[in-house]
């Protein structure tokens, strides 16, 4: 009887002692980075609004956040074909950005691939690339507009000049950063030059290429606005010039907000593509958490 009772008691799982149990931690909704980022933005905008109202800053110098929000709402509330709305001018600017970004980045990557396969070509082109990169693009933008006119082509060329060099430089650096042991291993297996490039050089250069693409995305937005400032018939840069002529500072800030959103969306798309393409890379050590 006693043995049966002991066996039965041993088979029953014992509940942990209340004194030894660890208390469950509730998830803090403010601990996430996104929530903290939103709260920081709200605090900055609130401080901006309060400072402008408190110190009575003239609206033509620094508009309050409420005026910027009203101007942004008015611009977005218009029809997509309205010549005074944000949709029409924003569509023109986005088309310029995408075309210039794709063409300029594609040419830079193509030349980077050729240079990686032919070291003599790098030595030949290096002084010319350095000379062209040193030329301020803002200075030659009026010349490009004179050559190509006020249409979209001149803005695309300006964006290409700004996006070409970051991708070229980072891609060349990436192709040089490949591990020599991997190349020696492939050569010992009688791999061709194309197989070495596809299996070793190009995967190793992808992080560098995406870094250059991220920089090129920001430069493409700047290049579109610079080209529209110099001479254009439509675009967000033209809208900023029109609003500044009318002393509509709130509208100008609203267009700048829209340009920032375009840059954020373009960069976010590149980051998502990068995560899908570079899924084999280890996670960033700065984002790892250790549970104690």
Shape: globular
Indicate the multimeric state.
Answer: single chain
Radius of gyration: 28 Å
Proportion of helical residues? over 70%
**Class computed from helices, strands and strand pairing:** mainly alpha
Distance between the termini: 46 Å
Strand segment count: 0
- Percent in strands: under 5%
Subcellular location: Cell membrane
Pfam families: BPD_transp_1
InterPro entries: MetI-like, MetI-like_sf
Protein name: ABC transporter permease
Task: Describe the structure in your own words.
Its main location: membrane. The chain crosses the membrane at residues 35-55, 97-116, 128-150, 156-178, 205-230, 250-270. It is a multi-pass membrane protein. Keywords: Cell membrane, Membrane, Transmembrane, Transmembrane helix, Transport. By secondary structure, this protein is mostly helical. The protein is 74% helix and 0% strand. It has helices at residues 2-11, 33-55, 65-77, 86-117, 119-134, 137-148, 152-176, 180-188, 193-230, 236-245, 249-277. α4 (86-117) runs antiparallel to α5, α6 packs across α7 (152-176) and α8 (180-188) crosses α9. The chain is globular.
């Amino acid at each position: 009887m006693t043995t049966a009772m002991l066996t039965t008691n041993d088979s029953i799982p014992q509940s942990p002692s209340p004194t030894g149990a660890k208390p469950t931690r509730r998830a803090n909704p403010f601990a996430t980075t996104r929530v903290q980022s939103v709260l920081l933005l709200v605090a900055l905008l609130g401080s901006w609004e309060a400072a402008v109202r408190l110190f009575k800053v003239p609206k033509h110098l620094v508009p309050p956040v409420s005026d910027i929000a009203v101007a942004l709402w008015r611009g977005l509330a218009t029809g997509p074909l309205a010549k005074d709305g944000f949709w029409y001018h924003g569509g023109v600017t986005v088309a310029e950005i995408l075309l210039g970004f794709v063409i300029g980045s594609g040419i830079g990557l193509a030349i980077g691939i050729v240079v990686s396969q032919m070291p003599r070509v790098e030595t030949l082109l290096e002084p010319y690339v350095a000379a062209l990169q040193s030329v301020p693009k803002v200075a030659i933008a009026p010349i490009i507009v004179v050559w190509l006119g006020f249409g979209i082509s001149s803005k695309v060329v300006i964006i290409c000049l700004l996006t070409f060099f970051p991708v070229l430089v980072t891609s060349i650096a990436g192709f040089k950063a490949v591990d020599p042991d991997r190349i020696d291993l492939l050569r010992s297996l009688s791999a061709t030059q194309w197989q070495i490039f596809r299996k070793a050089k190009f995967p190793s250069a992808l992080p560098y290429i995406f870094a250059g693409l991220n920089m090129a995305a920001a430069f493409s937005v700047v290049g579109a606005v610079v080209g529209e400032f110099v001479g254009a018939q439509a675009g967000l840069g033209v809208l900023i010039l029109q609003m500044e002529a009318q002393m509509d500072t709130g509208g100008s800030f609203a267009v700048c907000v829209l340009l920032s959103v375009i840059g954020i969306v373009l960069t976010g798309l590149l980051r998502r593509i990068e995560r899908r393409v570079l899924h084999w890379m280890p996670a960033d050590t700065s984002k790892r958490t250790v549970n104690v």
